[in-house]
Amino acid sequence: MSETEQKLRNEAMTLLEQGRADYIIGYEAGSLKFTTTPLITRDKDDIDRLVINPFILNNLSVFLGDISGKAGIVAKGCDSRSIVSLIQDQQLAREDIVIIGVPCSGVIDLNKVEKLTGKDRDELDDIAWAGDKAVVTIEGAKKEFPAKDVLMDDCLSCDMPAPQEYDILLDEVGPLVCDKELSRSQIKELEEMSPEQRWEFWKNEFSRCIRCYACRQVCPACFCKRCFVEETEPQWISPLPKWQDNLIFQMTRMIHVAGRCTDCGECQRSCPVNIPLRSLSKKMEEIADELFQYKAGTDKDAPPLMAAYESEEAEDFIR
Amino acid sequence: MKKVKKQDITRLLSQWQKEFTVFVPSRENGAAEMTVWDGQDVSFLDWYRNTVIPPKANFLLNMEIMFGFRKEDGSYNLELPAAATQKQLVFGIRPCDARATSIIDMVFKDAYEDKYYLNRRENTLLIGMGCLNPYDSCFCTSLGLGPAEATDVDLMLTDIGDDFLIEEVTDKGKELVARTEGVVEATRDDESRAGEVKDTAYKKVTRKIDTREIEKRLPASFDNEEFWEKVAAKCVSCGICTFLCPTCYCFDINDEMLKGDGARYRNWDSCSFPLYTKMPAENPREEKWRRVRQKVHHKYTFYPSLFDVIACTGCGRCIRLCPVNWDITQTLESVPAEAATGTEKK
Amino acid sequence: MAISDISHRKRYLAEGNVYLPHIAVIEKIIEETPGVLTFHFNFKDDKLKDEFTFESGQFGEYSIFGVGEAPFCISSSPTRRDHLEFAVQRAGRVTNALHRLGVGAEIGFRGPFGNSFPLDFLQGKNLVFVAGGIGLAPLRSLIWNVIDNRDKYENIDIIYGARSPLDLCFKYDLDAWEQDKTVKMTTTVDRGDDSWKGNVGFVPSITEQVAPSAKNAVAIVCGPPVMIRFTFPVLEKLGFTPEQMITTLEKRMKCGIGKCGRCNIGDIYVCRDGPVFSYAQIQGFLSSEY
Fold it and tell me: Within an 8 Å CB–CB cutoff, is residue B273 touching chain C?
């Protein structure tokens, strides 16, 4: 057990014992290799199951809405921004949340490791960090890969690996490998396409959407009690998984989360049919920054981007 | 038993393609699924472990026209689509998925026949392929299956090195082999080699559940709200585990209308969605723990009570593909041994 | 538990396809309350019009093409086959669309589905009907059925309530039963108005006041879930056993034939095994999700 892990368990236990939190939301070891799974508990006996490792993928802030009472929550940089964003949208009260900040040096993208090694994740023996290299063990043999080749795309463009908003910080920020060019390489490809090519690209991608709504369900910014997709009077889009409706669903969702999305990457990671959703959400984030110099979830006292208006704001489209 | 040389698989599929729409595992479209064979590519022989989209999608389409309608002078004419009588052949289906298909057949045959599903089913040959490299999420052996056993298929192929051993499971399968060139008699050595391969594969499935114990404990757990709330806590209520489950068959019915012409469709639906059971005033499964309980009990209590079979084949998709690693085997194993003292009011 | 044998059901399947509706024409629309309409309809196909049969308690799936399909009980009695009826409370997409229909409009009908009230069991007994709001719709099919075969049954008690005088459905029926000397009719409202001279009180408490005898009796109860939940204990207090209490359950029954998956209560599919159940059966359900 690492020192950070021990510290986390001590802090979590103290929170429960002192009644500063009714629930702890953290990660425990998953049931498959290289996974963790959310641990949501009010039971002190569960606390020694909490872990911190390179596979703490989930953005746990999505569970805060389910909790009645105070929650102590383990948060990476992007997760803490989601929490702040939820506070801005008045979905949470700051005093109901104890943020246990985990400085993050990026999470490993198992899809990338699979591509690099030609093996499925369950066929690998081990994945570990050695400095800025990831060491993958396959059938006893070790292979090294530069961090930037195995980190999630969203981690490669992360500016805030340590939570800015926290109550407890478990550790100092570790080394962070960034490669913004690489992080947005697919967006660049899309930008270089003609509108017709882009249309074909997305038509093809959304043709395989099965409407499982995992992208929406794992997204902390999707906090609507009833999604527009499920409205029936009027019915905005068809519940049938036709590519046109799939595309409208995702476009509308992206606009709804603009200014709230912290590029945590959960939508894309969860998609069982590999639709590159981050190419949309990241682009939206870039546009929000470019037009309004706005970064989601960085100031809990600021009004939400889409709920505020200033007369000097860019309005190129209305002139 | 028969066998075919591995390098002759293309030749085999080409012959069958003349008679059937041949489906093979493909990941060309971004997620592994059974798609129509292009007449050449057999690269799936190298990478294929199982598909993400289960082969149930070949019978219960995730979007299907039930009938069309047209309004003329205030009157409606309904038009059934041509019956799905195109003969299809699904090549490479895994035993878990083949068994799953037999399991959901029961629902679509029960009481009222579902012609859409059954037409496709009756016009399909299933060519199974033994699964020699099961995932760490697989637990088929706990449900009376083997990863390479010949069940619920017409033909079963087992990789024995340079050849595939072919077991003719049904008469339909036997007839198909009889009219296929390139298939030869297998030797006793081939058969014993296949036996070894199957044994090895069987031993590779290490995830286990004790279905007898579960069948005993689970019904008693039904009213244990505390237990279900705890196991449901991390579920995000998406549709992955149900949509991609080979035995989940629940569906929705929706209309679409464009300028007087329209159609009624069937599409997949999921008991994980909060609105699935919503009525105007009430929703019997509004709380998440009720939905998680429904999903688990449907497979392990209700289905056995109705059809005498557990509606799970241990394919492991729900574990492997879950965004939060919600693991049904952990839930089943953690069901308390003691019945709850009636926490839920009747 | 197979509550009833489906193979004996009367059903009309178009070319064997159970999902294909029959075209029916709206012949008359009655405004019951500001939110509830009763539709009278008949099949377009003359042969079907003649041959169609159903039993009290069964339901159909009604289509508005292009909008969707929803389940409603057949609210008319099989003893009065000039036309069929169903009553609809405005609530969602399909019901709103139904409320926009006019006489002559075409709808789709699939059915009849589900089981029915057990007439054999009810014969020779005193019958106590307890209904609230639009919950009278399935019961009125049975009430007229019983009245049209009056000599087969003993005493008939009807206790019916709604939120306000304005919310009383089937007022023409209430009047007819009021006039009928062989029927004891009690009407109540939760809240009266200036012109209301009848009972004021919730259905369960009025039932307690009316205090129908449990002797050789069966109570048939239908209404909002909360009314049903409070009525059963009252009836139990009056001496009714769970076997003597019958209700009909409402669920989101999309397919109507036990396949689509949303109307189950444990291993019971309400659309296929119900919607009519005795309280004894309901108590035996594994789940309380009814």
Answer: no
Report the alpha-carbon distance of residue A178 to residue B232 in Å, rounded.
Answer: 36
Phi, psi of C63 (to 5 degrees): -110, 140
Do B169 and B257 share a domain, yes or no?
Answer: no
d(CA C92, CA C72): 13
What are the b/e assignments for B16-44, b being 16+ CB within 10 Å?
Answer: beeebbbbbbbbeebbbbbbebeeeebeb
Looking at the fold, whether B23 and B113 belong to one and the same domain comes out as yes
Cα–Cα distance, A266 to A246 (Å, whole number): 18
Angstrom distance (rounded) from CA B182 to CA B15? 10
User: Looking at B164, B187, B204, which one is the last position of a domain?
Assistant: B204
Domain boundary among B204, B227, B256: B204
pLDDT tens digits for range A217-254: 999 999 998 999 998 888 899 999 999 999 999 999 99
Residues B173 and B215 in one domain: no
Question: What strands, in cross-sheet order, belong to the sheet with B63-72?
Answer: B75-79, B63-72, B261-268, B251-258
Structural domains in chain A, CATH included, are 3-107+151-307 (no CATH), 108-150 (3.10.450)
Residues of B in contact with C63 (CB under 8 A): 255, 264
Show which of residues 75-94 on chain C sit within 8 Å of chain A, judged by CB atoms: 92-93
Chain A contact for B325 (CB, 8 A cutoff): yes
The distance of Cα C279 from the centroid of its chain, to the nearest Å, equals 16
**Measured between alpha carbons, how far is C223 from C73 in angstroms, rounded to an integer?**
13
Residue A235: its chain C contacts at CB < 8 A?
93
Please tell me the CATH code under which domain C119-248 is placed.
Answer: 3.40.50.80
* Averaged pLDDT, B3-11: 95
Q: Which CATH number applies to C6-113?
A: 2.40.30.10
Cβ neighbour number for residue A311 with a 10 Å cutoff: 5
Residues C189, C99 contacting (CB under 8 angstroms): no
pTM of the model: 0.94
Question: Between β-strands B124-129 and B88-93, what pairing exists: parallel, antiparallel or unpaired?
Answer: parallel
Q: Do C264 and B298 touch (CB under 8 A)?
A: yes
CA distance C110 to C278: 26
How many Å separate Cα A297 from the centre of its chain?
13
| Rounded CA separation C286/C284 (Å) | 6
User: Sorting pLDDT into bands at 50, 70 and 90, what band is C11?
Assistant: very low
- Please tell me the distance in Å from B209's CA to the nearest CA on chain C: 23
CA-closest candidate to residue B343, choices B239, B236, B225: B225
Cβ atoms of C217 and C235 within 8 Å: the answer is: no
Q: Are A136 and A124 in contact (CB under 8 A)?
A: yes
Side-chain half-sphere CA neighbours of B282 within 13 A:
13
Any B CB within 8 A of C24 CB: no
A159-191, pLDDT tens digit by residue? 888 898 999 999 877 667 889 999 999 999 999
Which residues have CB under 8 Å from C46's CB, separation 6+?
A: none
Residue ranges covered by each domain of chain C: 6-113, 119-248
Count of domains for chain B: 2
Cis peptide upstream of residue C118 (ω within 30 degrees of 0): no
Peptide bond into C112 cis (omega under 30): yes
Range of the domain at B236: 211-333
* B343 belongs to a structural domain: no
Specify if B338 maps to a domain.
no
On whether both B199 and B261 belong to a single domain, the answer is: no
- Asked if the peptide bond before residue C275 counts as cis, ω within 30 degrees of 0, the response is yes
Query: Following CA atoms C5, C7, C13, C17 in sequence, which dihedral angle do they give, to the nearest 10 degrees?
Result: 100
pLDDT in tens, A267-297: 999 999 999 999 999 999 999 899 888 999 9
